[in-house]
């Protein structure tokens, strides 16, 4: 079970694909103008990630080293295309607002990164869990970024949630602040960069403080004798 | 080599170099009076190494009596430059003393107690030096302990020993650094000797053209040289005078070469790579003294200046004289108030502050500057670089000082080398103009020292690795050899046994087998006894 | 007596960063005066707000970073940022505009990167762009020149407007921006751009009263005033001529070509030079040493890029004036410019 | 129909690329991995064993196989930084369990106390100690890496580790460290 | 060696490609219908906002025709006719306003047979967020100010923004965007008044032409 705990920690925090590996920034920054969009893309990425990780892990023994990258890309591309078609068919509104960024999931380095770094070396259960946690980590950052940008730039939360979750979700919309003049920058792409920068800075600051607080573990290392006594 | 611009050089054309600054010259302070001779001190501290390169081997022992001009060291195995006794007296000590170095560290010195007689060691004058061979001349220059008196202190004979085609010998009388007038006074008072020294240098280097460069702010020196050269037609055809516009650092070797010839010395190259050789006027004078009069380098002109001295001027100072004695004679009065006094050896741009006044005057000491805080205000607090680029505008090496500064702070040594840190001549122009008062040169020096150290460490690590691997190999070999020996010994033993058995002796192998059988029997008996004892014990307890 | 150990050189030219910065903000004074003559007293209130915000932000950051507050104020760089931002925004903009802009410039653009000398982007212009992108309405509501306005504003009126949005008499900014003919006025560049997109020719567009006789009422003289200040800076060797020359050339040459080619649909080079923030940008903003290229050649290229970008954005872009965007874009190009304009060091083959 | 085309086209394309890759994999194979040599070149070669490996080369091999890069106290921060760059990982602080970065030192034998046991000679990884049984030993200072492996075996504790002296040649331009002489007023 | 490696890699890769393509093809087939329905519904939703259900009983989506008029902008434009009991009642037309602040604005404008505007919606635009994007119904109801109005001839001066002396508010700070929209709607209305007969009579020919 320890391995799963470690995977959770890795995906959500220490090796978070968005905050630490800085992978998949293009969709990350482009679609996070609202929580709804962020959540939509996050979930789509998560599904693709889990699917591709499991598939890659299952086929890893049959894929020769030389062609593993093309195979991984093909697996991911298939999942994304299927996902795109399904979204187009059943969550049309969200499909429209996420637009071009769904096909771009194919090029989200986080996914092929996990396939190569983890799934191709580990059994499918662990790979699935790794995909889940990495995807969750990615989604959480997306949602956080989306929330901050939406609040600053629009004064709302869950604006347009009905597009993702159906008509009932329009109830979710919260008008937090009524701005006369919202800070438009926040929902424009440069705002995404700036807010993302602050989130990363915050994480690093937190980690550093934790590291300072943590006592260095006492560890005994036996020094090797280089030479005969 | 560019023969194309020879005619332009001949025509007296001057070029210019990038950047440069015009700090207040303040030469009037010390160039008004003739050079005075400093009275002999009671003790002299002669550092064994006063030049760049290796030190020589010490020839004297504590208690020895020496005379003025007597060599205290000889080149020896390390091909060092000799130093000579500045006056007659007794060797008091040979030990580590603070030396004139920015670090304030100590180095090996020979301390002399002067006897006041100033008796001279026999000299070998040679007025008709034309008869001497090149090798002999070089030998004499070396033996006289002459190192470049302009500042770097590179042994002159070594510089002259390089044999390459030469177009010009340049005699550097620019003395561009503010305050310093040692060369100025020397040129005014000893022009003939300098010209004589120049001729010797031309003979040694096999160069038949020389340029004497003097900055335009020394009209008296220029007048004297013009006159002397015009009086001697034979000389004038070979030696030309060039007046150099006032700009700091036009006296820098590379900068002066660009001014006079329009050529640039290749990076990490030498002037000789572009057919040029440069010596300072002081060196020319010293060579004249050494060859014609046979006097080794035991004294030099030192400018003592600044508002904190009563008698600013130039002094003939014996090498090894403690700075304190010179300052006392020149009337140094300390600053009052809290502000700390700076005693600068060298000029305001490139000199270094002394931590201790007991350090001796050495071959490269051209100036002692004692500024008041009003004339040279101490550095203010360093502020952040605002990338204004003023430093790049004045850098005579056309480097990007601010870039170097960022890299030096970031300890990016590869980046520093890419930005040609080692082309920096440490002239200080960048730090002079820096509005944020960043001690730029200091950063470069630190970085340079660090890079050199890293290179040294790297070389050392490489040697250590080789030694380690050699040792591993040796151990492995020894192990193999040992095994081999054991094997051979065992075989020999076997053979011997076989022989013995064959000869009818007991087979030792049988004896061993018998011993083992005995031991086994004993063990079995013991085990049986123990089992019995156990049984009985159990019986009792139940 | 003790000896002071210091690194060479021991001599120093006495021109400090503080003095450099002081020259910069002294040289904008003519511009500020002309500005107040045409657009009223609002500029002084904006300056005041900007300076206060800048000082408070600097002090706060320095306290947080555990550095001396005095040292941050001492170098006067924050003053320059505040002044440049204050004269860039419409002078009757609400108070929170300048406060947000200055705070962003100081806190995020300057100090997040590490403070003086470390920032990648020109703080004043980054602040300006933040404001322009976020509050386009306020940032494009330039007051009309007083000479064309129906109502003249007292200082008290101005203060009321900036602090609450209404003058003492209860007029809103929008109402006050109506000209003599009752039509709200845009800046000359904005007006021209609108009209051009409206299928008017340049000549027709220039008939509007805002243009007056000289490159737009107020704006022409404002640019002349900044030009004057800029020339003083060059004369004082605070800035080198390379960047302003680059900007003006980079703007004028393509603008002239376009104008010769298509005079009816383009802005004349003269109007380009004498309107908007051209001179302010060329002499005061682009020349910010921290964010400009380093070598003289690099500076000239940097200027050319800004000038050309200004022209391109003004002609085809989404915003009528473009100096801020052009400067920020060129800031991003600085490392590349520096890399390729690095002078050949002595002894590296320049002369042999 | 179009679907069949898609399947065929993609299948054939994949087949062709697979063939190319299969060819390239054999044809352009890179043989040895010189990474160990590169790592070894960065390590300070003190051969001190503080990393837990018998010598720098074994540690270099361990790093190449994924061991942590922060186990070398003599190299200190600079070495970690270089290793991080070479290995493409984040630099980490020195693992204190292996020791701390210290000034460069050199071993010196107090010669009058030396009994000539040769134990230190056997311990020295770079053969920097000269001597023979029952004869006095001495350290070749400029070959000594300062690893202090010789200190412990010495039965009479006559080996000192002294910091490498600062000479004007290797001085680091730290003006703050210069002791300033206070001169009493001459008057 | 090479032959074996090539054969193996080629086969595996091809196998994967075929399986992947099969999967995609299957999904595409499966989702084809729903996707079409979604797109239809999307447009219908807008159309129904513009043409109230009580005004029509026909399938607006099917009753579509392509027309070419310079006034509507370059290229073909779709018109959707509404009828109640076979009686033409209203019509929606796609209009391009080419002179927005940042490029063209795509509008859908509906008119009743009486010639008055029954509604306008923005389909696509790139106007400045926070400024020009108030033409979206989601952001502002400015777009509804057209409802019920009619252009009285080409020189109807009321059809302009207030800045130009017309009756439509420009929203603060931006004039170009509303001006472009007002002009486009005006042009469309004039064209509708003139083309009404032909447009209602035009055949349904949108099918197969993707938008």
From TrEMBL, chain A:
Pfam families tied to this protein: Rnf-Nqr
Annotated keywords: Cell inner membrane, Cell membrane, Electron transport, Membrane, Translocase, Transmembrane, Transmembrane helix, Transport
Compartment(s): Cell inner membrane; Endomembrane system
InterPro entries given in the database record: NqrDE/RnfAE, RnfE
Chief place where the protein resides: membrane
EC number per UniProt: 7.-.-.-
GO cellular component terms attached to this protein's record: endomembrane system; plasma membrane
Regions crossing the membrane: 12-32, 38-59, 71-92, 98-115, 127-148, 181-201
Membrane topology reported for the UniProt record: Multi-pass membrane protein
This protein's record includes keyword Endoplasmic reticulum: no
BP GO terms, sorted: electron transport chain
Function statement: Part of a membrane-bound complex that couples electron transfer with translocation of ions across the membrane.
Protein family per UniProt: Belongs to the NqrDE/RnfAE family.
PANTHER family documented for this protein: ELECTRON TRANSPORT COMPLEX PROTEIN RNFE, ION-TRANSLOCATING OXIDOREDUCTASE COMPLEX SUBUNIT E
Subunit structure: The complex is composed of six subunits: RnfA, RnfB, RnfC, RnfD, RnfE and RnfG.
Protein name in the entry: Ion-translocating oxidoreductase complex subunit E
UniProt gene name: rnfE
UniProtKB/TrEMBL annotation, chain D:
EC number, UniProt record: 7.-.-.-
Protein localization: Cell inner membrane
Binding site for [4Fe-4S] cluster 2: 114, 117, 120, 154
Recorded GO CC terms: plasma membrane
Note on how the cofactor is bound: Binds 3 [4Fe-4S] clusters.
Stretches the record annotates as Hydrophobic: 1-25
Family annotation (SUPFAM superfamilies): 4Fe-4S ferredoxins
Main location: membrane
PROSITE patterns: 4FE4S, 4FE4S_FER_1, 4FE4S_FER_2
Alphabetical UniProt keywords: 4Fe-4S, Cell inner membrane, Cell membrane, Electron transport, Iron, Iron-sulfur, Membrane, Metal-binding, Repeat, Translocase, Transport
Residues that, per the record, bind [4Fe-4S] cluster 3: 124, 144, 147, 150
Necessary cofactors: [4Fe-4S] cluster
Pfam families from the UniProt entry: Fer4_21, FeS
All copies of domain 4Fe-4S, residue ranges: 31-89
Coiled-coil intervals: none
Domain of life: Bacteria
Biological processes annotated in GO: electron transport chain
Cross-referenced Gene3D superfamilies: 3.30.70.20, Electron transport complex subunit B, putative Fe-S cluster
Family (UniProt): Belongs to the 4Fe4S bacterial-type ferredoxin family. RnfB subfamily.
NCBIfam families: PRK05113.1 (NF003475), rnfB (TIGR01944)
Function: Part of a membrane-bound complex that couples electron transfer with translocation of ions across the membrane.
Record's protein name: Ion-translocating oxidoreductase complex subunit B
Protein source organism: Pseudidiomarina maritima
Gene from which the chain derives: rnfB
TrEMBL record, chain E:
EC primary class: translocase
Subcellular location, record wording: Cell inner membrane
One Pfam family cited in the UniProt record for this chain: FMN_bind
Source domain of life: Bacteria
Cofactors required: FMN
Signal peptide location: none
Membrane topology listed for this record: Single-pass membrane protein
Sorted UniProt keywords: Cell inner membrane, Cell membrane, Electron transport, Flavoprotein, FMN, Membrane, Phosphoprotein, Translocase, Transmembrane, Transmembrane helix, Transport
Known EC number: 7.-.-.-
Keyword Cell inner membrane: yes
UniProt xrefs under NCBIfam families: PRK01908.1, rnfG
Family, per entry: Belongs to the RnfG family.
Biological role: Part of a membrane-bound complex that couples electron transfer with translocation of ions across the membrane.
Name of this chain's protein: Ion-translocating oxidoreductase complex subunit G
Organism: Pseudidiomarina fusca
Gene name tied to this protein: rsxG
């Amino acid at each position: 079970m320890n391995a799963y705990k470690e995977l959770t920690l890795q995906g959500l925090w220490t090796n978070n694909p968005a905050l630490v590996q800085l992978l998949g920034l293009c969709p990350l920054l482009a679609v996070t103008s609202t929580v709804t969009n962020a959540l939509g893309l996050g979930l789509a990425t998560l599904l693709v990630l889990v699917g591709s990780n499991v598939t890659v892990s299952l086929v890893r023994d049959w894929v020769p080293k030389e062609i593993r990258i093309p195979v991984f890309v093909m697996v991911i591309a298939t999942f994304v295309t299927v996902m795109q078609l399904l979204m187009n068919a059943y969550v049309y509104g969200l499909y429209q607002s996420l637009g071009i960024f769904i096909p771009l999931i194919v090029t989200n380095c986080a996914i092929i990164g996990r396939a190569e770094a983890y799934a191709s070396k580990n059994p499918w259960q662990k790979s699935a869990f790794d995909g889940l946690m990495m995807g969750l980590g990615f989604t959480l950052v997306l949602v956080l970024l989306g929330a901050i940008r939406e609040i600053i730039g629009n004064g709302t939360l869950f604006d347009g949630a009905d597009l993702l979750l159906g008509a009932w979700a329009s109830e979710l919309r919260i008008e937090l602040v009524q701005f006369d003049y919202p800070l438009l920058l926040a929902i424009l792409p440069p705002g995404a960069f700036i807010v993302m920068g602050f989130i990363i800075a915050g994480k690093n600051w937190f980690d550093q403080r934790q590291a300072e607080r943590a006592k260095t573990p006492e560890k005994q290392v036996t020094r090797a004798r280089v030479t005969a006594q | 080599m560019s023969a194309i611009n020879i005619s332009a050089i001949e025509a007296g054309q001057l070029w210019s170099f990038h950047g440069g600054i015009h700090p207040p010259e303040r030469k009037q302070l010390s160039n008004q009076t003739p050079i005075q001779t400093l009275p002999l001190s009671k003790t002299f501290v002669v550092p064994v190494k006063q030049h760049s390169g290796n030190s020589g081997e010490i020839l004297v022992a504590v208690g020895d009596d020496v005379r003025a001009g007597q060599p205290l060291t000889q080149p020896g195995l390390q091909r060092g430059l000799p130093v000579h006794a500045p006056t007659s007296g007794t060797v008091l000590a040979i030990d580590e003393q603070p030396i004139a170095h920015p670090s304030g560290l100590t180095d090996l010195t020979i301390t002399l107690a002067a006897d006041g007689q100033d008796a001279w060691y026999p000299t070998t004058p040679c007025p008709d030096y034309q008869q001497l061979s090149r090798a002999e001349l070089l030998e004499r220059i070396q033996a006289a302990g002459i190192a470049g008196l302009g500042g770097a202190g590179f042994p002159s004979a070594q510089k002259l020993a390089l044999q390459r085609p030469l177009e010009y010998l340049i005699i550097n009388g620019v003395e561009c650094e503010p305050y310093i007038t040692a060369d100025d006074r020397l040129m005014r008072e000893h022009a003939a000797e300098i010209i004589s020294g120049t001729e010797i240098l031309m003979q040694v280097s096999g160069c038949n053209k020389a340029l004497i460069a003097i900055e335009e702010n020394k009209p008296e020196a220029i007048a004297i040289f013009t006159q002397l050269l015009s009086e001697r037609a034979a000389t004038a055809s070979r030696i030309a005078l060039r007046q150099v516009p006032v700009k700091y650092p036009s006296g820098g070797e590379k900068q002066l070469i660009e001014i006079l010839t329009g050529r640039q010395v290749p990076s990490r190259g030498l002037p000789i790579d572009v057919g040029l050789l440069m010596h300072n006027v002081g060196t020319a004078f010293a060579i004249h003294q050494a060859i014609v009069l046979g006097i080794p380098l035991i004294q030099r002109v030192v400018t003592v200046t600044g508002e904190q001295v009563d008698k600013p001027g130039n002094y003939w100072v014996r090498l090894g004289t403690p700075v304190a004695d010179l300052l006392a004679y020149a009337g140094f009065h300390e600053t009052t108030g809290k502000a700390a006094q700076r005693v600068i050896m060298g000029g305001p741009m490139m000199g270094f502050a002394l931590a201790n006044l007991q350090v001796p005057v050495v071959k490269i000491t051209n100036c002692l500057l004692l500024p008041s805080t009003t004339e040279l205000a101490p550095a203010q607090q360093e502020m952040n670089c605002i990338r204004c680029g003023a430093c790049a505008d004045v850098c005579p090496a056309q480097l990007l000082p601010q870039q170097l500064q960022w890299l030096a702070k970031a300890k990016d040594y590869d980046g520093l080398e890419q930005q040609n840190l080692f082309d920096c001549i440490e002239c200080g122009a960048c730090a002079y103009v820096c509005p944020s008062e960043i001690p730029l040169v200091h950063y470069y020096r630190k970085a340079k020292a660090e890079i050199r150290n890293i290179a040294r460490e790297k070389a050392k690590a490489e040697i250590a690795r080789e030694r380690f691997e050699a040792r591993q190999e040796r151990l492995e070999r020894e192990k193999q050899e040992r095994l081999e020996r054991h094997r051979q010994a065992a075989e020999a033993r076997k053979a011997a046994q076989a022989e013995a058995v064959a000869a009818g002796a007991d087979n030792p192998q049988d004896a061993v087998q018998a011993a083992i059988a005995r031991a086994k029997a004993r063990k079995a008996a013991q085990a049986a006894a123990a089992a019995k004892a156990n049984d009985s014990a159990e019986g009792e307890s139940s | 007596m003790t000896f002071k150990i210091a690194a060479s050189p021991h001599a120093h030219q006495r021109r400090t960063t503080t003095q450099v910065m002081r020259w910069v903000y002294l040289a904008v004074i003519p511009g500020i005066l002309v500005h107040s003559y045409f657009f009223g007293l609002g500029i002084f209130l904006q300056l005041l707000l900007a300076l206060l915000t800048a000082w408070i932000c600097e002090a706060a950051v320095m306290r947080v970073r555990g550095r001396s507050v005095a040292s941050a104020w001492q170098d006067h760089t924050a003053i320059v940022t505040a002044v440049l931002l204050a004269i860039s925004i419409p002078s009757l903009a609400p108070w929170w505009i300048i406060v947000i802009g200055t705070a962003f410039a100081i806190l995020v653009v300057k100090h997040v990167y590490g403070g003086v000398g470390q920032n990648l982007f020109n703080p004043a212009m980054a602040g300006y762009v933040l404001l322009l992108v976020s509050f386009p309405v306020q940032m494009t509501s330039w007051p009309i020149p007083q000479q064309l306005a129906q109502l003249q504003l007292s200082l008290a009126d101005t203060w009321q407007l900036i602090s609450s949005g209404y003058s003492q008499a209860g007029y809103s900014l929008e109402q006050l921006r109506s000209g003599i003919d009752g039509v709200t006025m845009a800046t000359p560049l904005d007006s021209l751009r609108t009209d051009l997109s409206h299928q008017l020719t340049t000549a027709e567009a220039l008939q509007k009263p805002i243009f007056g006789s000289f490159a737009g009422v107020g704006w022409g003289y404002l640019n002349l005033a900044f030009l004057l200040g800029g020339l003083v800076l060059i004369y004082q060797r605070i800035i080198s001529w390379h960047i302003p020359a680059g900007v003006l050339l980079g703007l004028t040459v393509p603008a002239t070509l376009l104008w010769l080619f298509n005079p009816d649909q383009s802005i004349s080079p003269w109007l380009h030079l004498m309107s908007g923030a051209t001179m302010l940008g060329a002499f005061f903003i682009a020349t910010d040493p921290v964010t400009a290229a380093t070598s003289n050649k690099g500076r000239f290229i940097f200027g050319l890029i800004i000038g050309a970008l200004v022209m391109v954005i003004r002609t085809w872009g989404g915003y009528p004036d473009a100096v801020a965007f052009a400067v920020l874009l060129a800031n991003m190009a600085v490392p590349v410019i520096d890399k390729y304009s690095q002078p050949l060091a002595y002894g590296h083959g320049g002369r042999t | 129909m179009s679907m069949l085309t898609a399947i065929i086209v993609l299948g054939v394309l994949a087949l062709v690329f697979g063939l190319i890759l299969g060819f390239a994999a054999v044809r352009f194979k890179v043989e040895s991995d010189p990474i160990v040599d590169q790592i070894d070149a960065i390590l300070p070669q003190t051969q001190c064993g503080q990393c837990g490996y018998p010598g720098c080369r074994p540690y270099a091999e361990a790093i190449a196989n994924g061991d942590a890069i922060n186990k070398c106290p003599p190299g200190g921060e600079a070495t970690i930084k270089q290793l991080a760059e070479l290995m493409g990982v984040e630099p980490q602080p020195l693992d204190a369990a292996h020791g701390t970065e210290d000034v460069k030192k050199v071993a010196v034998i107090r010669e009058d106390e030396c009994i000539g046991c040769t134990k230190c000679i056997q311990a020295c990884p770079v053969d920097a100690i000269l001597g023979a049984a029952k004869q006095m030993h001495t350290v070749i200072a400029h070959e000594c890496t300062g690893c202090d492996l010789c200190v412990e075996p010495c039965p009479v504790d006559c080996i000192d580790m002294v910091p490498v002296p600062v000479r004007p040649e290797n001085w680091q331009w730290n003006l703050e460290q210069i002791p300033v002489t206070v001169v009493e007023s001459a008057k | 060696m090479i032959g074996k490696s090539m054969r193996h890699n080629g086969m595996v890769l091809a196998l994967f490609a075929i399986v992947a393509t099969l999967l995609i093809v299957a999904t595409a087939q499966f989702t084809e219908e729903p996707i079409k329905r979604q797109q239809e519904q999307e447009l219908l939703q807008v159309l129904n906002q513009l043409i109230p259900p009580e005004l029509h009983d026909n399938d607006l989506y099917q009753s579509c025709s392509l027309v070419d008029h310079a006034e509507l902008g370059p290229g073909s434009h779709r018109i959707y006719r509404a009828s109640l009991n076979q009686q033409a009642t209203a019509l929606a037309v796609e209009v391009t306003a080419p002179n927005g602040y940042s490029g063209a604005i795509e509008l859908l404008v509906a008119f009743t047979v009486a010639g008055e505007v029954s509604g306008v919606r923005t389909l696509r635009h790139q106007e400045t967020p926070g400024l020009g994007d108030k033409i979206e119904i989601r952001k502002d109801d400015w777009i509804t100010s057209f409802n019920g109005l009619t252009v009285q001839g080409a020189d109807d001066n009321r059809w302009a923004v207030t800045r130009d002396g017309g009756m439509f508010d420009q929203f603060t700070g931006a004039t170009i965007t509303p001006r472009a929209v007002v002009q486009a709607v005006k042009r469309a209305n004039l064209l509708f008044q003139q083309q009404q007969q032909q447009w209602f009579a035009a055949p349904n020919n949108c099918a197969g032409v993707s938008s």
